[in-house]
Specification:
The chain has 93 residues and is mostly helical. It is 52% helix and 4% strand. It contains four helices and two strands, in the order ββαααα. The N and C termini lie far apart (50 Å). Pfam families: DUF433.
């Protein structure tokens, strides 16, 4: 199946993602490098051209400072909202 190749853009929450999709560069990196999925598997699961998976991985590694900043912003947002979440151990029946 032929799929449209996409570029990397920054118009979604200031995090680089595939143009026209909500799939972030960081998400693709996590799927391939942290979870150990093959780029072809990621391509099939998310209906992407395999070149887009490699493009996202290349972008991630070509922009280490930007990706570190993205991760720090994400962690900061998580930390600032942590008090709004409930730990399952805190819920009583």
């Amino acid at each position: 199946m032929s799929r449209v190749q996409r570029g990397i853009v920054h118009d979604l929450h200031d995090e680089p993602h595939l143009d026209g999709r909500r799939i972030t560069v960081r998400f693709i990196k996590t799927q391939v490098e942290d979870r150990g999925l093959d780029p072809e598997t990621v391509s099939e699961r998310y209906t992407l051209d395999v070149a887009d998976v490699y493009r996202a991985l290349t972008y991630y590694h070509d922009h280490p400072k930007e990706m570190d900043d993205v991760e720090q912003q994400r962690q900061s947002a998580i930390d600032s909202h942590d008090h709004l979440t409930t730990d399952p151990d805190d819920v009583r029946r």
